[in-house]
């Protein structure tokens, strides 16, 4: 049935494209050579432009050029190069024909002043065959966000809050974040964002939300490609402090930034007669943010990872540092070394279930003993060495090596698990004889101790070569070796044979994974096709191999588990001459772009995308079992999760700086791991185990409007209409409910049918002035207004006697937010300063997070409630998201 649906949908898309292609004239091309008029030698690097259009080309090393996708008509073709006189010819192009034009340029003497070169992407990139959103430094700094994760949520097709980000209906773990070409994800817990990156440290964020090429693997919903900033030829720095002051909850941010030529190689070494060829530059960024949040909080937190409270004086504490060295030795080579690290210390108020499934969100039941609740310490760091080379005009390649480390540690006030005190809910306080009090904990420690880390070494190679003017290839590989460790202890005060509490899970393993891809870009009949193929593989390693073999020797292994283990041993391919098994997967990708005119482009993509399951779903409890009756056991035989996605879009350019993009998409996802109950062999209790048995589907329409900065104005509009359904929203949904509802598809928890984001900005550069009713406003000004609107959160309707509606069928009150940001530069005693004003949710909208399932809105005194629910249960302070806040900052620029 699924195959039939794909065939019908593919046929419909192809018929649609056939009609589109036949309705437009066939394009032609202009080819030729540019020679030196005296020597007759071909000139490389000559610029050719069709006047009145954005089309053109540059000559190669032999002086040849080829301008593709030219519509029939009469044009003026101009050739220009520094040191030569400009020359133009009239050219008439005919439908489907190739026109040849040769130029002979005469030398000339040119006096030149300093030139500032500003590179900018074209509004319509004709060779891009899928959806992408690119945010440069100017756009990132204009958004009402602090980090890359927040910037991503403003884009069409992306929803979420806290650490949960969903792209086109996918789960939060389906995103691949890449920093300077290397993945930074936590494969053990599934956290997509392995590090915190403030926007001040980033030069560009490229969000690929559908149909990405074969070079990207281990991602099903989207890819977030982040490029760190680099130093320039001149020194530049920035020191900024901002605060909410005494009027709102305490929230302070400090940012220090410095970049420019590297001092040792530029000054010190030349003084002793040692010169390094080329240029060496550096960029550094330090970002600190300390916030008490709008929720109840402790005075400070103690992190046992660092053995101090100095790094965590408030409830939410974030520290990030970036250092990047870049050496350009000459020619077209570049060597870069970057180091980035982030530390987050908090109590998990804005963590998701994906970060740690047993403790997340505001701990309402611990409101009386927040000091005894968990402290989360997340530490992530990456060091990357990369080499880029362009040996000729037809070829370039990249070589990268990296080490990435991420660690999540959770405990109570730095205690070892053996030091935990039992949780008690007593009423009245001090009456230990009452077993159940007011349902809020009064003494004792939160019952979890957790630590896990992932250390990954990566090697990556990519090469691109232009075989001909109409055929390019790109190929490469990625290889990753990982060491993982997981220690998880629940209710440690419970007596158990191993002294590790009621439930525990401990393992350490090493694995190898990677991918090889081949990508073709072919230009034909006015179209550009990206045809790719990718092979991903995973070698789980010795720990898993030995665990499976040992388990099969036990007599009390349940039949369903024995079947899974035998299937892994007998049907999973092995590496020749070894006992190691590996899991491969083949993913085809197809993308087509058809530039109809210089202002219009159709694109279509179809692809298979795969991703390995979170490693905790595989390795958990493989070597040991606890005494708990709610054990979750991993499955070594889990296969890759698969997405099959289709996308169709249209881009239209209204002017030089204004673009509208409309996109429709459809996705099928299957092989999701899901916890299912397994009957134990008596006297052993039942337990839960992960199986590939879940699925989901998403479809939607996205509309984006972009106006780049011109005439002082810039704007962005992002609109999404979507639907996401599946059997479960997480791998543990059935585990928490205790039963399967049915095989029916339900709305997923994060489904938001409507989403809108709009941003309007006005910028005056230094030296410009604005007259308002005769009043002159000096330049160096940037003002921005952002408006976001989206459907409310999903909930399951329920009446006062306990009758429930369909799962997640209700939609709570809509969310809205208006943010403003104003930056004004000025100079005092020759120093540059910048005043910054940030207003968040300035209308004070109370966006409802927890919905009363009886009324479908926030709880208000006297409202009817579900059975066994009291008013106190509905008064969680986290039932609303953040209210109004204003932050004022002052920066020194030099």
From TrEMBL:
Subcellular location: Cell outer membrane
Organism the protein comes from: candidate division WOR-3 bacterium JGI_Cruoil_03_44_89
Recorded coiled-coil stretches: none
Membrane topology: Multi-pass membrane protein
Gene Ontology MF, one: siderophore uptake transmembrane transporter activity
Pfam families registered for this protein in UniProt: CarbopepD_reg_2, Plug
Transmembrane segments: none
Protein name per the record: TonB-dependent receptor plug domain-containing protein
InterPro entries on file: Beta-barrel_TonB_sf, CarboxyPept-like_regulatory, Plug_dom, Plug_dom_sf, TonB-dep_rcpt-like
């Amino acid at each position: 049935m699924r195959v039939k649906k794909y065939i019908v949908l593919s046929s419909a898309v192809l018929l649609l494209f056939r009609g589109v292609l036949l309705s437009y004239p066939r394009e032609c091309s202009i080819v030729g050579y540019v020679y030196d008029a005296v020597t007759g030698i071909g000139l490389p690097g000559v610029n050719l432009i069709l006047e009145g259009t954005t089309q053109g080309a540059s000559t190669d090393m032999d002086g040849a050029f080829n301008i593709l996708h030219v519509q029939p008509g009469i044009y003026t073709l101009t050739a220009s190069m520094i040191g030569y006189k400009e020359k133009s010819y009239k050219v008439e192009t005919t439908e489907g024909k190739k026109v040849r034009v040769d130029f002979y340029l005469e030398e000339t003497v040119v006096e030149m002043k300093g030139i500032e070169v500003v590179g900018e992407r074209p509004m319509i990139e004709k060779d891009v065959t899928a959806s992408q959103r690119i945010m440069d430094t100017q756009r990132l700094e204009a958004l009402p966000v602090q980090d890359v994760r927040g910037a991503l949520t403003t884009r069409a097709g992306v929803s979420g809050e806290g650490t949960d980000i969903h792209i086109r209906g996918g789960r939060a773990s389906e995103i691949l974040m890449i920093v300077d070409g290397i993945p930074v994800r936590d494969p053990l817990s599934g956290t997509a964002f392995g590090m915190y990156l403030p926007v001040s440290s980033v030069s560009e964020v490229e969000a690929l939300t559908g149909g990405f090429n074969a070079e990207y693997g281990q991602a099903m919903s989207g890819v977030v490609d982040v490029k760190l900033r680099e130093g320039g030829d001149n020194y530049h720095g920035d020191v900024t402090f901002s605060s909410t002051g005494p009027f709102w909850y305490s929230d302070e941010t400090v940012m220090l930034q410095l970049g420019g030529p590297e001092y040792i190689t530029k000054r010190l070494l030349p003084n002793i007669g040692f010169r390094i060829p080329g240029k060496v530059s550096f960029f550094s960024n330090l970002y600190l943010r300390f916030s008490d949040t709008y929720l109840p909080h402790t005075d400070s937190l103690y992190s046992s990872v660092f053995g101090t409270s100095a790094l965590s004086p408030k409830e939410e504490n974030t520290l990030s540092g970036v250092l990047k060295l870049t050496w350009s030795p000459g020619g077209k080579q570049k060597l870069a070394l970057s180091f980035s690290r982030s530390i987050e210390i908090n109590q998990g108020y804005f963590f998701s279930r994906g970060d740690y499934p047993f403790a997340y969100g505001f701990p309402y039941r611990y409101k009386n003993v927040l000091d005894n609740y968990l402290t989360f310490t997340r530490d992530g760091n990456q060091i990357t060495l990369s080499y880029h080379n362009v040996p000729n005009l037809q070829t370039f390649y990249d070589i990268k090596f990296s080490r990435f480390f991420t660690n999540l540690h959770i405990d109570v006030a730095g205690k070892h698990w053996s030091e935990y005190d039992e949780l008690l809910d007593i009423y009245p306080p001090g009456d230990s004889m009452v077993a159940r009090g007011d349902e809020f904990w009064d003494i004792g420690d939160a019952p979890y101790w957790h630590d896990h880390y992932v250390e990954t070494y990566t090697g990556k190679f990519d090469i691109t070569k232009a075989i001909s003017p109409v055929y390019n290839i790109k190929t490469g590989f990625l290889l990753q070796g990982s060491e993982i460790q997981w220690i998880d202890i629940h209710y440690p005060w419970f007596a158990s044979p191993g002294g590790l509490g009621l439930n525990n899970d401990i393992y350490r393993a090493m694995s190898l994974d990677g991918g090889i891809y081949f990508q073709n870009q072919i230009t034909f009949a006015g179209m550009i096709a990206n045809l790719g193929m990718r092979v991903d593989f995973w070698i789980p390693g010795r720990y898993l191999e030995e665990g499976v073999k040992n388990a099969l020797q036990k007599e009390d292994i349940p039949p369903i588990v024995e079947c899974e283990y035998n299937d892994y041993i007998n049907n999973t391919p092995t590496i020749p001459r070894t006992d190691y098994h590996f899991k491969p997967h083949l993913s085809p990708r197809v993308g087509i772009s058809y530039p109809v005119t210089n202002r219009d482009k159709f694109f279509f993509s179809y692809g298979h995308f795969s991703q390995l399951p979170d490693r905790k779903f595989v390795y958990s409890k493989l070597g040991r079992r606890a005494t708990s009756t709610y054990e979750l056991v991993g499955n070594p035989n889990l296969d890759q999760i698969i997405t099959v996605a289709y996308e169709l879009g249209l881009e239209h350019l209204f002017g030089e700086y204004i673009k509208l993009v409309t996109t429709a998409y459809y996705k099928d996802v299957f092989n999701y791991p899901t916890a299912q109950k397994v009957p134990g062999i008596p006297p052993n209790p039942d337990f839960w185990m992960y199986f590939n048995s879940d699925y989901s589907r998403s479809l939607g329409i996205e509309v984006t409007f972009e106006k780049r900065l011109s005439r002082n104005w810039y704007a962005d509009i992002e609109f999404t209409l979507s639907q996401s359904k599946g059997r479960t929203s997480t791998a543990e949904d059935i585990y928490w409910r205790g039963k399967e509802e049915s095989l029916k598809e339900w709305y997923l928890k994060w489904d938001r049918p409507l989403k809108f984001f709009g941003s309007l900005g006005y910028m005056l550069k230094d030296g410009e002035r604005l007259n308002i009713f005769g009043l002159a406003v000096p330049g160096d000004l940037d003002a921005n207004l952002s408006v976001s609107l989206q459907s409310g959160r999903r909930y399951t309707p329920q009446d006062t006697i306990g009758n429930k509606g369909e799962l997640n069928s209700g939609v709570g009150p809509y969310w809205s937010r208006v943010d403003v940001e104003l930056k004004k530069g000025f100079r005092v005693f020759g120093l540059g300063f910048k005043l910054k004003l940030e207003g968040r949710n300035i209308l004070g909208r109370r966006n409802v997070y927890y919905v009363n399932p009886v009324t479908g809105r926030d709880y208000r005194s006297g409202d009817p409630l579900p059975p066994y629910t009291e008013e106190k249960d509905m008064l969680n302070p986290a039932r609303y998201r953040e209210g109004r806040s204003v932050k004022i900052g002052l920066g020194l620029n030099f």
